Amino acid sequence: MEELLSILKEIHPEVDYDTEDGLIDKRIFDSFDIVTLVGQLTEEYDIEIGPEDLIPENFNSAESIYGLVERLMEE
Amino acid sequence: MSFVSVPFAVFVISAVLLYYLMPVKYRYLVLLAASIFFYYSACGKYIIYILATIVITYLSSMAMERVKGRSAIVFDRGQKKEAKKWLKKRLKIIMIICLFLNFGILITLKYSNFLFSNINMIRVGFFGSTDMWGFGKLVLPLGISFYTFQSMGYIIDLFYRRYDAERNPLKLALFVTFFPQIIQGPISRFKDISPTLFGGNRFDADNFRKGLYLILFGVAKKLIIADRLSGFIKNSSALYRDLNGTYMLLMVFLYSMQLYADFSGGINITIGTARLFGVDVTENFVRPFFSKSVSEYWSRWHITLGTWFRDYIFYPISISKKLMAFGKKVSRVNDFLGKRTSLYTATIVVWTATGLWHGPEWRYVLWGLLNGIIMCVSAELTPLYDRLNNMIGWKMGGVLHRSFAVIRTFVIMSMLRVFDLSFEGIRQALSIYKRILLRQGGISAEMLESLGLSMKDLKVAAAGIAVLFVISMLERKKSIYDRLMQRPVAQRWIFCTVSVAAVIIFGYYGLGYNSADFIYMQF
User: Fold this and answer.
1) Whole-angstrom Cα distance, residue B507 to residue B20?
2) Domains held by chain B: number
3) Which of A32, A48, A55 faces B343 most closely, judged by CB atoms?
4) What is the CATH number of domain A2-74?
5) ipTM of the assembly?
6) Which domain holds residue B74?
7) Of A57, A64, B56, B352, which sits with the fewest C-beta atoms within 10 Å of its C-beta?
8) Which of B295, B316, B379 lies at the smallest CB-CB distance from A51?
């Protein structure tokens, strides 16, 4: 989780990722941010994120992103 | 049958009565019959194209379901990975065939002559050919871009296994043809619209009332602002050679307002009409002129088209393994470019496609590309903007900073719309820019009137735009409808009476006048 938080902080340092649960719904992350994030997650965790994973539910909070990463690492 | 016409009102009232008289279970059939009737009355024999899309989409979706069922039989639980791979490959083949056929219809009807005219230009220029290739004039069926995109979004979602396919062909036909959104969208997602579209909704007074309010709001936008400005904009863009830059500037800003009033007004009527049947249609606008950047503007304007391109083209390209691997290779030579390869390639592809979506002409391609380039450049310049803001001493996110960003975005977006107005092509757009920059001059009331904009028109449109602005400001916190509902019944009636009276008194209509077609209908 620490690594993920530092990646997220690099993209949007002003966000409080402990409480924020509307990264997509509140348009804090735009599509450029998502693609940047996916690129970094792919490299950091050696996972494969497909277009089918790019749904708001997977990216609305740090927790949900972490959940996605864990799920993909298991696969 | 125009949305803003007596026949359409009679048609909707009849459909609503039939809908609520029908047993709940069969109510979706009334919507399907109404949609087929609406489409046939608008397109006649060309209904064949939408029927072909329905058949192709349905057969493909059923083939996908069959393959999914087979993968469960062929593989046992221990072979999860193999099953996934096997299934993905087969679903992909079906999806590609379906996309090829449906986009094939769209491309043939909408883009083949554009393609041929460019090929002919090369043949004439380089090889001296004298015979011209082409299909002659092709009829573009109503809403083909909208229903093709909507159907293909459904098929791509099935490929990603986001939900199961609809087994009832009549329900799928309704999803593709639903009449309120066939003219100009929104491009709905199956998952979002299907529960209320097929559900057989019971009469809900609040929903119905909200629908009527939305229709009233949409008609007011269309008749008081959009149609009133339509003549001036058409005439001044046609006579641009004889007009100075001040007229052009007025045309550009009024066109932004006209387009917004026209398109968002049409969407209000669409959402309102759907609500009369209890159907929830996705919102397509969220106060776009309050955007602080071009990318934010595109997340608030024609939202469903933007999200379609984002989900089905931008994401798959930008995160594709091949492009990311290519980006890494580029990084070895130039780290800056490498990190941006996939992002900017996808941006350029999406915005070229968005341009082409608006019309098979180079001016639209250039318009799309400029949007994409502005977004990429502004992403790169963000640190510079921040430094400049600090130097000026503006508080980031403060009123001054936000107001500047909003005005800047409005000016950029309005200026880009010059390509929309340049029916003669890119040269006309460049000439309009030149006039705006170098040939400013005075304007006269007489000239404006001869162009179709009397002082009365200007005052009424300005008042309409001012009301729209106030409503947009109020809606930042709560919708105008919710605010109204908190008021006593008498006040609501006064509001409605005043609004209807405003449409009757200030609406642009009359004997011999037909409400102009919606601008987005041509796409």
Assistant:
1) 32
2) 1
3) A32
4) 1.10.1200.10
5) 0.90
6) 6-183
7) A57
8) B316
